Amino acid sequence: MSWFQLGGVIASLLFISLAYAAPAIQLDTQAAPHPATQQALDKHLDQHRTWHALLHLDQATPRIQDPNFLLSQQHGFSPQQELLLTLQALLDPATATQTYCRFPARATWLSQQLNIPLNTPDCPDLNEFLAKAPADQIDLVYASENLYSASSMMGHVLLKLSGMNDQNRSVAHAVSFYTEVKGFNLPKILYDSVIVGKKGYFALSPYAEKHRYYAEGEQRNIWTYTLRLDPEQRRLIQLHLWELRQTQLKYFFHTYNCATFTNLILAIANHPTLSASTGWVSPLDTVKLVHDGDLIAATTITPSNRAMVRILTEQQSFGWKSNFKQQLQQQSVPEQTAGQSTLDYVKVLLSAQYYAQYLTDQQKITTEQAQQIAIANEQKIARLIPDYLIDFSEYKTPDQQPKDAQFYVGLSSEDQQYAIRLGGFAASHRLEDDNRQHMSESQLRIADLAVLVETEPEPRLRVDQFSLYNMSSYLPYDPLTGGLSVAFSMGYDPLYDEHLDRRHVAQVKGGLGLSHQPWSDLTLYTMANAAVAYNRRDQGFGYIEPQIGLILNTVYDGKTLIQLSQHHSLAGRQARYFETTVTQAFRLNPEMSVVFDYAHYWQKNDSQTRWGVSLKRLF
Questions:
Q1: 474-506: b (≥16 Cβ within 10 Å) or e
Q2: N or C: which end of the chain has fewer CB within 10 A?
Q3: CB within 8 A of 93, min separation 6: which ones?
Q4: Which of the 8 DSSP states describes residue 192?
Q5: What is the structure's pLDDT at 278?
Q6: Is residue 448 within 8 Å of 465, Cβ to Cβ?
Q7: Half-sphere exposure of residue 190, counting CA atoms within 13 Å on the CB side?
Q8: CA distances (Å), 196 to each of 59, 182, 250, 252, 510, in order?
């Protein structure tokens, strides 16, 4: 069966790494070195960032362990040894054809660097791929967080290849790297994703399908960045994608994810801001890297229908939205009211149009019904304001979001005991951070570790809190598009016992709730949380924790968080107590902020207070 089929449905099923094993290239390790090898060493090509990107290295360590991808894997891998063996295989007539067809990007780059004439052999499968999946243009695509799925807060990045294929048809393909997540055993999923590595899949699929999945299925906003790459760079990237086709890949959440993979592919272009050694890279980091490197030639924004409804009606009252929804369900659109400006009425008509499309995405009305509403509204809009356009170029753009790794240090006090508190995490953000470029107030903390350095009664270092995974989203409820607030955390956290003494427990906690946004800078929420926990004294136990709170963006780039909780233990000797927390953050600049924390715990006969101040740096 051919990889590609008529109608543009290409290698979505067959262009997946691990599809079949590549035949091993047999090398004669006793062969005399070719003169070009000394030239390569003299030019230090083994240290070149493009060579490291082609090998998917982190420093000098390969992220890919497949022996069919690394010729030196069985001979003691190093970037230099891989370079020498690749040159040997390319320059030996017995292995040249097989090596070029397996590693066309390596061969092309080495030929350019060493000025070696390259006799391109006939590689039928490679030629078919190049003809069917052109790269006349390469875009970086960023799919924002899903408003209704807090676990998607980091967004997702992929590459889009487009151009004219061998049948002179315009085609576009998505280049994706992912892993499968099955089951509900989160500890095992995290262990496999971070320690062991999960099976990685590299797929080339019709871009329209991928776009439809994110825009309609998950209702994500999509930013498409056309990259400023010359034909030689695009060709090298295209050839390297072919090399990965026959490669076994392992997905690691923190070191080899969709963002790492995409960054490595782009690093082949040999741009100073794009390096093979990047550490922990998030989708947002990749967007910032291409933005900082001035690699973006053009930007296209595709808001989801759900986001468009929220944007166009954000100034309307809760009652107006409820009435508007009822009218649309009856297939009628509100008429222009007295005193309503033409522009405001056009927004109402557009809201109806996008809401109908959103209901179509949710399969609640038919496409024909949505089209009837669209046609009627478009005719009205054309009469009122011809050629009306909405400019989203400055609306919640990813490149304007704060950096998503941070380190903090400060002073903490409890029961008149003082300590230095320091910590940090690699992704992603806290509630007190600047979330105005996100679609909702949210936080995502992964491996957030805070420690206390105490001096009394004797010097010691102890863990104050460790959040293995902590995510929450306070999405305001909307009568038109709904929306629940959600929270989930897993970690080693402090609780208070019957004497309000601080004790740490390992716990898993989750919650659901509702949020309301009376105006753009204020979010009010209520949550119902439940948890299961364990410590040595009480063994396993559960508790419930209802909460109410507010999140307020204040003047002078400040932010205030206030929360009232009731901790109600279901077993063991854990106390039933109330907790009030107040957090005030002031941003000194986009990368630095000062945070003040205050917490008061009380029950019938006792109370406890804890406070702290810290300096935070984002990087």
A1: bbbbbbbbebebbbbbbbbbebbbeebeebbbe
A2: N
A3: none
A4: I
A5: 62
A6: yes
A7: 12
A8: 20, 16, 9, 8, 26
- 206 prior amide bond cis, ω within 30: no
Determine the Cα–Cα distance for residues 98 and 89; give it in Å rounded to an integer.
9
Residue 342: both structure tokens together? 């033409």
In sequence order, the β-bridge partners of residue 225 are: 140, 299
User: Could you tell me if 139 and 159 are in contact, meaning their C-beta atoms sit under 8 angstroms apart?
Assistant: yes
Q: Which residues are bridge partners to 510 per DSSP? A: 488, 530
280 pLDDT higher than 80: no
Q: Is the pTM of this model over 0.85?
A: yes
What tens digit of pLDDT does each residue of 459-499 get?
889 999 999 889 999 999 999 999 999 999 999 999 988 88
Q: Which of 544, 554, 611 is nearest to 581 (CA)?
A: 611
CA distance 404 to 402: 6
Which helix (H) or strand (E) element contains residue 503?
strand 502-519
Q: Which of 483, 463, 432, 17 is nearest to 256 (CA)?
A: 17
Q: Do residues 506 and 489 touch, judged by C-beta distance below 8 A?
A: no
Token pair of 610, please?
């804890």
The Cα–Cα gap between 42 and 19 comes to 38
For residues 169 and 8, is the Cβ–Cβ distance under 8 A?
yes
Helices (H), 213-341: 231-245, 258-267, 283-292, 305-313, 318-329
* DSSP letter string, 384-405: HSTT-----TTSS-GGGSPPS-
Q: Give which of 44, 10, 375, 24 is closest to 207, Cα–Cα.
A: 10
Written as one letter, the residue type at 34 is H
pLDDT digits 0-9 by tens, 49-64: 999 999 999 888 899 9
Q: In the prediction, which pLDDT does 17 show? A: 42
